[in-house]
Structures
1.
Amino acid sequence: MAPLATLAFCALLAAAAASDLARFRIPNALTGALAAAGLLLAFPASGGEALARAASFAVVGAAALGLYGARALGGGDVKLLAATALWIPLSGLPLFLEALAFAGGLQALCALGARRLAGPSLAVRHVRMPYGLSIAAAGFAWVALRGLS
C-alpha cells in the first residue's frame, strides 16, 4: 500500500477509535471517509484484487450485520468493520480477523477487570465497550504484519 494510503487508513481508524472511546459513537463521516479512501487511495490493481476486496466486504459485512442483529455490535461498529474490509483483500482477512479476535478479547478482559475493581455496585450493570478500539488495533496490526505473512 502506498504511504499516503497507509497514512489515511491509520489516521481514519485512529479517529474512529478516539471518537468511540470518547462518546461511544463512530460518526458516519469517518466510516464514509474510510470507505471512500479505500476505493480512491488503495484502488485495486486488478479485477481479481477488486473481487477479493468485495468478497472481504461481503464476508465481514454479513458477519457484522448478524452480530448487530444479535445486539452484540453497535451500528457504528458494523459500518467501521465494513469500511475497513474494503481495504483488505480476501487473502489478508484471516490476519485481520485474528488480530480483531485478540484485540477484542484483550479489551473484554480489561473491561471485566475494571468492572471487578469497581466493586459490587457495578457487578450487575451492563458495561459498554468501545469496540472501535479493537477494530482500529486490528487494522493497525494488518498494516504492520501484512508484509510478513
Note: The chain has one domain: 3-145.
2.
Amino acid sequence: MSKYIVVIVIILSLLSGCLTTGSEISIRKHDTPPGEYTEITEEELKEYPVLEKAISDEGCTKFNENSWRCKINSGELSRIMDFTNKKRHKYLFSMDERLEKDLNEGIITEELKNEFESKGFPLSNIARQARQLSEINHLADGHWEIGDQRYKIWKEDGKLNIYDSVAYYTFFKVGEKYYKIDYCVN
C-alpha cells in the first residue's frame, strides 16, 4: 500500500513540476492574454530583482521558448509570493491604519462598517451583527480576512488596503507579454 502512495506522490509532483529540492518559480509566457490578468509595472518589478530575472528567464532552466523554471532562495520566494498574492486580488480602497486595532481584536465596529459602506462596499448582515473573532481572521502572513466577506486587508505604507478576494487574476502582464507564475516550495 505504501508503495502506491509514494508512486502517487511522485506522479503528482511531476505533474505540478515540483519534484526538485529547494524553492523554484515556474513561468509560462503568452503573447496574448489567456484569461483575466493584472499588470506588474516596471517600477514594481525593480523592487523584486529576482522576479525580474526569472521573468526574463535569466539563469533559468528552459523547457521550451515559452516555459522555464528558476531556483530561488526560500526567503526571496516568500517575498515574491506575498507580492504576487496581493497583485492577484483586485484593489478596492484604503482606510486609515487606526482601524488596525479593531482588526487585531476581531471586532467589527460601527466605524469599520461605516468605512466599508462609505466606499461602496457594505458588509453583509451577518458581519453587521457579529462582534467577535469569528468574523475577522488575522492570518499568519500578516493580513486579515473578513469571515463571510470577499475582502482581504493588507497593511501597506501606513494604510490598510482592501482587496476583493473573489476577483483572482491568474495571469500577469509585464510589458507587452503575459505570464503565468507558479511556485514550488520544498
Note: The chain is about 35% helix and 35% strand.
3.
Amino acid sequence: MSDYTASAARLGLGTLVELGQNDAAPLASPPTPETFLSVGEVTDVAKSGAKSDTPDVTNHQSPDGFREFISGLKEAGEVQVSGNWVDPSISPPDNFITQEVVEALFNSGERRNWKIVVPPAAGEMDSPGYFSFKAIVNSFGDSNFGTDKQINYSFKLKISGKYTYVAA
C-alpha cells in the first residue's frame, strides 16, 4: 500500500522575477543585503535545462569501436520571460521595475543578480523559496501586436555560473 495521499504540485500564479539592485553593503555595520525589485507585468517564465559539454575522448584503444566521452563544463541554461508591454510614461508600483530597465541591461551587457520567487501554494502565507542566479540579458524586445490580444514583450536571461534554489 502506498503512502501517497495527494499531489504537492503548485500553480505558477504569483511567480516573481526579481532583479538585484547592486546595493549590498557587506562591510557596513550592520551588513545590508542586496535589495531586489520585481519586473512588472510578467506573464510567463520558462527556464531551459542545464547541460554539460561532452568532449570526445575516443582513442585507438577505445573498446569495441565505440566512441568514449567525458563530462565537461556545465551550463545552467537560460530563462525566457514574457510580459505585458506597459507604456513607459506610466510609473511602476513601488518595488517594481519597468521593461526599460531590462532593456538598459541588454544594451549595457551588465551581469546582475536575479531571483525567480516561487509563489505560496493555497493555504501558505509565504513563498517556500527562490531560484538565484547571475545573468546577462542576452535577448530583448520580441513583441506581439495581435488584433485580439494584449501587446506583449519578452527577454532572455543567459545564466552565468550556477543556478541554485534557496529555501525560505
Note: The chain has one domain: 16-167.
